[in-house]
Design brief:
Keywords: Metal-binding, Zinc, Zinc-finger. With 461 residues, this protein is α+β, with helices and mostly antiparallel strands. The protein has 11 helices and 15 strands. The strands form 4 sheets. An 8-stranded mixed sheet has the order 7-6-5-8-9-3-4-10. A 3-stranded antiparallel sheet has the order 11-13-12, with no helix packed on it. A two-stranded antiparallel ribbon has the order 1-2.
Length: 461
């Protein structure tokens, strides 16, 4: 579910609303959704007045199945400015009359029912053999949202081919494997996985990424991706059609297609993570999405190279630091060794804390050192890095220079349910931890011995 921290006041408000809410009778039939008395249903999509148990998801005009298959606005159809303003005016008009408690929003009530239906379907189809198998996946960044020619990787701006165990949790796959393989920054922007068969969405439980403000335009709510493994949600192999989608940064909307190339037999599966191949450089963070990125890289100027070098996912790159102002971005280049190193680093580190993502605070005074500042949950700590050292989106000569980059970082080891071997990335039901620092897991002694050369620098035992 989307991030929400209940308080005694909000719980009281929710109970007051629940007492007032009632179904509406339309054509002699009560609606599944309950409404507040003063809500006149202006701008509410007709699908929300139906029974979710009878709902059939629909595809967008370009064939995509996104946002639970509820087409409130087809992204493949561009609206002019006046049409967009009118759509927002209608939506805001209804919300201004009835400000529902988060979980009681009519659209969320409907999707909650779809989520329960999906969870029951997944539970009924669970197969231990699939979890014991390795999956070969190809992930391709969509050039345009309306791009329907999706089978070829060679025409993509960026693509990666990855072997991963079906027992890997979806949340761990995103954080420690997929984002590093692609080149995106861990725990910086929000994300969604989308099942292409019915539009089901999966995301980070408790996430507070700033771009989640756009969630109402991306399906409104989602299943907790930490509850499901890849084997439970990925379809059968099909190299001609993506079985899943990965949306990174709900504001900029980087849309990736995920193809299941093959599912290896259990006898041929070792559970280890392997980045097999790839092509194309990752776009810069905050690059305003696929369509704008294609235009941006069509003509790369020295100023653009410098802007990319300052971005969150390139500012700490060894080559950027080594070459400085002489560094040049090549959108067609892919460094396989560097991508494998990013994955190895992520595997050997604690899982990200979605409730405390990387963010920048503007101003010369650090708000996180003051009473009442943003606190970190138990078992974590908040890092504070001056912008002159880390990422600074404004540039050193900007009047807004003086920002602080912060993130909540986990102090404790990962839970056993999400444990991956720190060396090979294999999911392990009974993980063995490092006896010195007790913060990383290994699948066997061979992996621990092999990884010791790298791990001893971080081991605090």
């Amino acid at each position: 579910m989307p991030p929400y921290a209940p308080t005694p006041e909000s719980n009281k408000y929710k109970k007051q609303q629940e007492k007032l809410m009632r179904p509406r009778v339309i054509n002699g039939k009560p609606t599944f959704i309950k409404f507040l008395p003063q809500d006149d249903l202006v701008a509410l999509h007709p699908v929300y007045l139906t029974d979710p148990n009878d709902f059939t998801p629909r595809r967008q005009r370009n064939g995509d199945m996104l946002e639970w298959g509820i087409i409130e606005r087809d992204e493949a159809v561009e609206l002019n400015m006046m049409q967009t303003i009118e759509l927002r005016r209608q939506q805001d008009s209804r919300m201004a009359k009835c400000m529902y408690h988060g979980s009681l929003v009519p659209e969320v009530q409907f999707i909650n029912a779809l989520m329960e239906r999906k969870k029951a379907k997944i539970a009924a189809a669970r197969d231990p053999q699939r979890e014991a198998s390795d999956y070969v996946l190809t992930v391709r960044l969509r050039n345009r949202l309306s791009d329907t020619e999706r089978a070829s990787c060679t025409s993509a701006v960026m693509w990666r081919r990855i072997k991963v165990s079906g027992a890997t949790k979806l949340s761990v796959f995103q954080d420690k494997i997929l984002a590093p393989a692609l080149g995106w920054t861990r725990n910086y922007h929000g994300y969604l996985f989308v099942d292409d068969s019915d539009g089901t969405q999966y995301g980070a439980d408790g996430g507070s990424h700033i771009d989640l403000m756009h969630l109402k335009d991306n399906g409104r709510t989602y299943l907790d991706d930490h509850e499901f493994t890849l084997a439970e949600i990925l379809p059968q192999p099909d190299t001609n059609k993506p079985g899943f989608h990965y949306i990174y940064d709900l504001g900029d909307y980087w849309l990736h297609d995920i193809y299941v190339e093959s599912i290896l037999p259990v006898s041929e599966s070792d559970g280890k993570v392997v980045l097999l191949a790839g092509g194309g450089a990752c776009p810069r963070e905050d690059g305003q999405g696929c369509h704008n990125w294609i235009k941006y890289i069509a003509s790369l100027t020295p100023a653009k190279h410098a802007e990319i070098a300052r971005s969150m996912n390139y500012c700490d790159d060894p080559e950027v630091r080594r070459l400085g102002s002489q560094w040049r971005f090549d959108p067609h280049t892919f460094d396989l060794a560097a991508a494998r190193t990013r994955i190895a680093t992520a595997l050997a580190s604690p899982a990200s804390v979605p409730s405390g993502p990387k963010k920048t605070s503007i101003g010369m005074t650090n708000p996180f050192t003051h009473p009442g500042g943003d606190s970190a949950p138990k078992g974590t700590h908040r890092t504070v890095i001056p912008s002159g050292i880390g990422f600074n989106p404004f540039g050193k000569n900007s009047a807004l220079h003086g920002a602080f980059q912060t993130e909540v970082v986990r102090d404790r080891r990962d839970t056993r349910a999400s444990a991956l071997c720190a060396h090979c990335g294999k999911p392990i039901a009974k993980p063995k931890m490092c006896s010195a620092c007790r913060k990383v897991y290994y699948c066997d002694q061979d992996c621990q011995k092999t990884h010791w050369k790298e791990h001893k620098r971080q081991c605090v035992g």
